[in-house]
Amino acid sequence: MALIDRVHDTGRVIGNLSNRNAELRRQIEEIRAGPALEAVVATEQRASDLEAEATHLRSKLKVAEEQNKGLQVHLKATRAEFR
Predict the structure, then answer these.
(1) pLDDT tens-digit profile of 63-81?
(2) Burial level of 1, CB count in 10 A (0-12/13-18/19+)?
């Protein structure tokens, strides 16, 4: 009888350790997924912000190029007047 009790107790210990191991693995996966997911969200937000800034800078560049063209025309006209 003592051997059967020891086997039964050992089975319960192994079962408890297996359950604890599964729980710890689940917690590890949560930890791994949590910050990684937050990092992905933060990276996507940063990319979106940078794309908006790039679009804004492109529009400012276009305005500056148009102003440059206008100033170049004005400069040529002014040079022609002084010749």
Answers:
(1) 999 999 999 999 999 999 8
(2) exposed
Distance CA 31, CA 78 (A): 69
pTM over 0.85? The answer is: no
| Mean pLDDT of the residues in the chain | 89
Tokens of 14: 């192994």
Q: Where are the domains of the chain?
A: 1-33, 46-82
Structure tokens given for 16: 């408890």
Centre a 10 Å sphere on the Cβ of residue 7 and count the other Cβ atoms it contains: 10
Distance between CA atoms of residues 77 and 24, nearest Å: 79
- In single-letter form, the type of residue at position 26 comes to R
Token pair of 83 as six digits: 């010749």
How far is Cα 16 from Cα 22, in angstroms, rounded to an integer? Answer: 10
First to last CA, the chain: 121
